[in-house]
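Summarise this fold before class:
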Amino acid sequence: MSLRSAGVLMYKRMDGQLFVLLVHPGGPFWRNTDLGAWSIPKGEVAENEDAETAARREFAEELGAMPAGALRPLGSVQQNARKKTEAFTMEADFDATCISSNLFEIEWPPRSGRMQSFPEIDRAAWFALPMARQKILPGQQILLDRLEALFGPDGGVN
């Protein structure tokens, strides 16, 4: 069974460049990983839920604020054999220093019998496209290409 997720690639234009908002996964497994670990805010689409609604909900759950404004489809990416992500983009400015993520619980340390809670997202940041290409998960890099194809590297409309 494949998993379906949806997310928002938020962007802003600044100093003649496009910047994108990416999030870093929380928890002990990603603590010391930076390059190739960041993602768009995204999550699973519930049964009978449309992808745009799920993308907005997941953004709010991971960052603490519902994105307002029109979403533009960026298409889907196959992240791995089981996971397909439908992405949307929107222009907005978001304070990445004030996030409030939902929590998940896992046994940590492994086989210790102790359950610990961790934020799903431990930080968010704005990156210019060249740096975003280094930070983002390899399976999501095509979303940056699609955004750039829509607007160009300087944020102008193509």
Summary: The mean pLDDT is 90. Helices lie at 51-63, 129-135, 141-151.
